[in-house]
Design brief:
Layout (H helix, E strand, L loop, with lengths): L1 H21 L5 H10 L7 H6 L20
Length: 70
C-alpha cells in the first residue's frame, strides 16, 4: 500500500516536471489521462501532449484536487 502511494506521487511529479519543461498548457489531469491511454506510443511526448485530439468533458475534472497551481 505504501509503495503505491509513492509510485503515484512520483508519477504525478514526473508529469508536472514534463509539463513545465515542455511548456504544455494542458492541466495535469488531462495529461495523465492521455498518458494512460497511450503508454507505449512512439510519438514524441511533446507532440502527443500538445495535440488537440483530446478534450475533457466538463464533469471529468470536478473531483480533482489541486496540489500546485502550475
Amino acid at each position: 500500500m505504501k509503495s503505491q502511494i509513492w509510485i503515484a506521487i512520483s508519477v504525478y511529479l514526473l508529469v508536472a516536471i514534463a509539463r513545465k519543461r515542455l511548456g504544455v498548457e494542458r492541466d495535469l489531469y488531462t495529461m495523465l489521462q492521455i498518458l494512460s491511454v497511450h503508454p507505449f506510443e512512439k510519438t514524441p511526448l511533446a507532440q502527443l501532449l500538445s495535440a488537440e485530439g483530446y478534450t475533457p468533458k466538463e464533469g471529468d475534472i470536478r473531483n480533482q484536487l489541486w496540489l500546485f497551481d502550475l
